[in-house]
Amino acid sequence: MSLAQKPVGAPVQQSVIGRMVRSRETGIIAALAIMLLGLSIFVPDFASVNNLINDSRNFSFVGIVVLGQAMVMITGGIDLSVGSVWGLTAVASAAFMRLGMGPLAACILALIIAALIGLFNGLCVTKLRMPPFVPTLATMSIARALALVITRGKSIDDFLPYDSAFFNLGGGATFGLPNPFIVFLVLSIIAGIVLSRTVYGRQLYAIGGNERAARLTGLEVDRLKISVYVISAVTAGIAGIIEVSYLSSAISNQGLGKELSVIAAAVIGGTALTGGEGTVLGVFVGAVILEVLRNGLVLLGTDAYWQGVFVGTVIVLAVFIDQLRKGFWRTR
User: Fold this and answer.
1) How far apart are CA 92 and CA 150, in angstroms?
2) CA-CA distance, 90 to 153, in Å (whole number)?
3) Which of 26, 40, 122, 309 is most buried per CB count within 10 Å?
4) Architecture of domain 45-330 in CATH?
5) Where are any strands of DSSP class E within 246-332?
6) Lowest mean pLDDT: which of 116-130, 201-215, 251-265?
7) What phi and psi, each to the nearest 5 degrees, are found at residue 156?
8) Cβ atoms within 10 Å of 166's Cβ, excluding its own
9) How many CB atoms lie within 10 A of CB 155?
10) Closest Cα to residue 110, out of 229, 246, 244, 253?
11) Which distant-in-sequence residues (6+ apart) come within 8 Å of 309 by Cβ?
């Protein structure tokens, strides 16, 4: 067939297929599909409606926090305090409600506390020029200690009547879907629009790609970086409040170690630790993969102590495949 006879739509079709192959989301979605298929075949209970509903509820808590963490990572930073902010917001909201404050006011006040921690992290990174690891590690310790101060090591129970509508936020369902999953889905859509369709989102990618160039083009880099740390802390706070609603109780170790799961989900989803890369679709799938893996290991009877080994292996494999993909396409 001559060039003149070649179908007009062929280059466009090839271009679409090429973009799909090059897309990092294609790989992780394929990995998730293989995991779901394999577990459905070898562990019949995995595909049960109740298990899938529980899975969707469980990965939503981490998923909500990943949305904020991904924004921080896109700018080239990292937030190690999200797990502790998660726990502090949880116990603070419950403590405020036990003091007689209404659920809405208590949650807003707790989220303001979370936002202040994010603001502190952002100011340390931008104004004091600290590496993100330092202030977020410090606030990880501070927030956890404050949670212990509030609870004195005891759980906070009976802060609201058991028929309160507040408990539907985490424990209820809408159209058969757990409410935490619906919150996660809505926040993911909002985050996706912000990152892909707004000037703000493009500016975040520009900072992560080349911060010096972003400053030279006139971007308010410090303000933008502060904003993502505040967003990260607030999303951690939202997860904490929803978890309190689900558990009907608050304890100081809520969110303990979750910063590792959050970062893992972001990395598995293709968010680069060096900044400038990452999508909401990727982190959404990354959060799902982590929970599917954990749930599958439990159903397979795997020793709980080995679960961290498998998760760590998946993280390394995900980063390796991504580097291999980028290296491969540079040679094309």
Assistant:
1) 7
2) 14
3) 122
4) Orthogonal Bundle (1.10)
5) none
6) 251-265
7) -105, 110
8) 21
9) 15
10) 244
11) none
- Angle, to 10 degrees, between the axis of helix 133-151 and the axis of helix 82-98? 30
pLDDT digits (tens, 9 = 90+) for 112-127: 999 999 999 999 999 9
Tokens of 251: 């304890």
Q: Is the entire prediction scored with pTM above 0.70? A: yes
| Six token digits for residue 71 | 């924004």
**53-58: long-range contacts, CB 8 A cutoff, minimum separation 24:** 53/173, 53/176, 53/177, 53/178, 54/295, 55/291, 55/292, 55/295, 56/177, 56/178, 56/181, 57/178, 57/180, 57/181, 57/246, 58/291, 58/295
Q: What is the DSSP letter of 320?
A: H
Domain residue spans in the chain? 45-330
Quote the distance between the C-alpha of residue 312 and its chain's center. Answer: 17
Between 11 and 194, whose confidence is greater?
Answer: 194
Please name the residue that has the structure tokens 């507040």.
166
pLDDT digits (tens, 9 = 90+) for 40-81: 999 889 999 999 999 999 999 999 999 999 999 999 999 999
Direct distance between the N- and C-terminal alpha carbons of the chain, in angstroms, rounded to an integer: 25
Q: Hey, is 48 helix, strand or coil?
A: coil
Give per-residue pLDDT as tens, 232-260: 999 999 999 999 999 999 999 999 989 98
DSSP letters, 205-253, are HHHHH-HHHHHHTT--HHHHHHHHHHHHHHHHHHHHHHHHHHHT-B-TT
Q: CA angle 147-149-154, nearest 5°?
A: 80
CA R_g for the chain: 21
Q: Locate 10 and state its tokens.
A: 């062929």
